[in-house]
Amino acid sequence: MIETPYLLFLGDAPDGLAAKVAQGIKDWRPDNCVGQFRMEGCKADMKLPDMTLAEAWDAGARTLVIGVANRGGVISKAWKAVLLEALDQGYDIASGLHNLLRHEPDLAEKARGLGRTLHDVRIPVVQYPIANGEKRTGKRVLAVGTDCSVGKMYTALALDRDMRKAGMKSTFRATGQTGILITGEGVPLDAVIADFMAGSIEWLTPDNDADHWDIIEGQGSLYHVSYSGVTLALIHGGQPDALILCHEPTRTHMRGLPGYTLPSLEVVRDTSLHLAQVANPACKVVGISINTQHMDDAAAVAYLEEVEARLGLPAVDPYRHGAERLFEALAAI
Amino acid sequence: MIETPYLLFLGDAPDGLAAKVAQGIKDWRPDNCVGQFRMEGCKADMKLPDMTLAEAWDAGARTLVIGVANRGGVISKAWKAVLLEALDQGYDIASGLHNLLRHEPDLAEKARGLGRTLHDVRIPVVQYPIANGEKRTGKRVLAVGTDCSVGKMYTALALDRDMRKAGMKSTFRATGQTGILITGEGVPLDAVIADFMAGSIEWLTPDNDADHWDIIEGQGSLYHVSYSGVTLALIHGGQPDALILCHEPTRTHMRGLPGYTLPSLEVVRDTSLHLAQVANPACKVVGISINTQHMDDAAAVAYLEEVEARLGLPAVDPYRHGAERLFEALAAI
Questions:
Q1: pLDDT per residue as tens digits for the range B159-186
Q2: Roughly what angle, to the nearest 10 degrees, separates helices A228-238 and B197-204?
Q3: What residues of chain B lie within 8 A of the CB of A259, using their CB?
């Protein structure tokens, strides 16, 4: 568990896209963000107060979160100086970078000497169990996609936000690095050892109140040959009571796989539900989340209406129109 | 790659079952076995010549393979003395034990000093790629099961043996610890990091002659909630041209999951084929392998006939009746 609130480190981000982790934290957990730390040449801006390490500390920040991708997978000297200074000032540091903070000898040594924590959320720190398949109390919903990167995390975060607003009990359960940095905890599923994947999701979504919803962040797709095993482990470890289908209609092939076309929503619905009912026979598909970012307003509305009529399920773009109808569908279970 | 031939270390095995790894090597690769090394009290017997380390070395053995499970997960002092002596005599050592040889300081130090290799096949030594889904040349068959431990490895090994006997080009591709020790190479799939599972199977089954068959060892089951993700990674990484369904008819619930009933062969056929055709649209289900060890002769034959009639596919128990009809079904593709 990462201590909040955060100071967001944007480094020398060449553009806003390089700082998408920081953007996710700002968008979804603004209360966790005291300010932003930008170095010379930084082109990203989270519209948060620019602060020095000392100013943010005085404002309550306790963890410096690296919210930017590093160039070439190397932690530069300029970054390093800031990170070392942050440890000296009292901060823990959290990072989702592929190259780990703990593998930097100077950072590791200083953190050890000062008793600070380096959170490398890229890799697991827990020894997860093998899944036992036992029924757990409380309710769970999982977003499953026709492809990778179609908006599953966004859909889950929007649902969680709207359900909390409505006074329902819900918890977003992060299964990827960005989600973990947003919420401060979770399972970095893509880095878990094969035998323990489903068990890690059981661990992540334990017994809870009967009226509590775990909103589980989806990963990959049953139809993406590189990552499908991860998706099935989520379906079986998560024991979802409800599935939400996620799709991006303008994509011409599976992400990173030029020879592979996307499956239809109907096919994803049928296969996901069939496999989910192995672990939870009561599971239902309750709605559809469409990422319409590459469509104009008229095209988006027309597409949503067509999908809704075709599948007989509420179809929304939660970014464009809110997640209310999805959350109502969950509430009706 | 583990250097052959082997001296099989049976230690102080309390019974034959404890030495099932040695039995597998003896049964499937007898030419790799120079002899067996038994300690006082050993109750297992592979019907191989009992040899000292020196005798087996002179007979050509180059690797001491630990063919027995250790009690309580500890490498005893008595074992340790033999293993250290083997390193001194020139042997490499191979092991599928959960506790690793390399984590024993005395073994690790001696091996390093002498330039010997400690093969811990429990864990991967290769940095596998992310699967790219590209079509590879050559043919592949994968055994998929209604459950774990229903005879998938045995079926694959029997097929490989019979196809080679018939002059066909085939290679058994091990995906588990026992299979790796039998053949000397493979992927310990249950220990691979989630993101690289499918890629590890692509790596294991590369381009080959158009008339060559990779016989891929199956793992888990799409319907076993603890390990289903591993199975799907095999289906998508393996790009099989053919599937063989494996089943054990007397099992009353999924292995280790008392609340879970087994899926029917029809359900496993349909779901496995549907998902396999994502990676290889030409994939076919060609036969059924039934493990009839808990049935008498008459019951076994009756069951096989019933399944064959019901599914319209050759159904055999390769242990009882040979794998010929399965291999003929493959040859007909």
A1: 999 999 999 999 999 999 999 999 999 9
A2: 140
A3: 133-135
Closest residue, chain B, to A199 (C-alpha): B226
Does B192 touch chain A if contact means CB atoms closer than 8 Å?
yes
Chain A neighbors of B237, CB-CB under 8 A: 225
Angle between helices B324-331 and B152-165 (to 10 degrees): 70
Give the distance from residue B224's alpha carbon to the nearest chain A alpha carbon, in angstroms: 8
pTM of the model: 0.95
Asked if A95 contacts A66 with a C-beta cutoff of 8 angstroms, the reply is yes
Per-window interface: A 236-265 vs B, CB < 8 A: 236-237, 254, 256-257, 259-260, 263
> Which residues, in sequence order, are bridge partners of residue A64?
A7, A93
* Nearest-CB residue to B232 (from A192, A232, A237): A232
Are the Cβ atoms of A228 and B232 closer than 8 angstroms? yes
A203 and chain B in contact, CB less than 8 A: no
Taking an 8 Å cut-off on Cβ atoms, the answer to whether B274 and A271 are in contact is yes
Token representation of residue B120: 């811990």
Q: Can you list the pairs that A50-58 forms with residues at least 24 positions away whose Cβ atoms lie under 8 Å?
A: A51/A7, A53/A7, A53/A82, A53/A85, A53/A86, A53/A89, A53/A91, A54/A89, A56/A7, A57/A7, A57/A89, A57/A90, A57/A91
Q: Tell me which chain A residue has its CA closest to the CA of residue B254.
A: A133
In this structure, which amino acid lies at residue B111? Answer: A
**Torsion-angle region of B11 (φ positive above 0: left; ψ -120 to 50: alpha; else: beta):** left
Is the Cβ of B197 closer than 8 Å to some Cβ of chain A?
Answer: yes
Q: What angle do CA A54, A57, A59 make, to 5 degrees?
A: 110
Query: ipTM of the assembly?
Result: 0.94
Q: Can you name the residues that pair with B246 across neighbouring β-strands? A: B145, B289
User: β-strand B118-120 against A139-145: which pairing, if any?
Assistant: unpaired
> Touching check for B271 and chain A: CB below 8 Å?
yes
Instruction: Please give, one letter per residue, the 3-state secondary structure of chain A.
Output: CCCCCEEEEEECCCCCHHHHHHHHHHHHCHHHEEEEEECCCCCCCCCCCECCHHHHHHCCCCEEEECCCCHHHCCCHHHHHHHHHHHHHCCEEEECCCCCHHHCHHHHHHHHHHCCCEEECCCCCCCCCCCCCCCCCCEEEEEEECCCCCCHHHHHHHHHHHHHHCCCEEEEECCCHHHHHHHCCCCCHHHCEHHHHHHHHHHHCCCCCCCEEEEECCCCCCCCCCCHHHHHHHHHHHCCCEEEEEECCCCCCECCECCCCCCCHHHHHHHHHHHHHHHCCCCEEEEEEECCCCCCHHHHHHHHHHHHHHHCCCEECHHHHCCHHHHHHHHCC
Contact of A280 with chain B, judged by CB distance below 8 Å, is answered with no
Euclidean distance between CA atoms A211 and B132, whole angstroms: 42
What is the rounded CA–CA span in Å between residue B303 and residue B287?
15
Tens-binned pLDDT, residue by residue, of chain A (333 aa)? 899 999 999 999 999 989 999 999 999 999 999 999 999 999 999 999 999 999 999 999 999 999 998 877 789 999 999 999 999 999 999 999 989 999 999 999 999 999 999 999 999 999 999 999 999 999 999 999 999 999 999 999 999 999 999 999 999 999 999 999 999 999 999 999 999 999 999 999 999 999 999 999 999 999 999 999 999 999 999 999 999 999 999 999 999 999 999 999 999 999 999 999 999 999 999 999 999 999 999 999 999 999 999 999 999 999 999 999 999 999 998
Helix (H) or strand (E) holding B113: helix B105-114
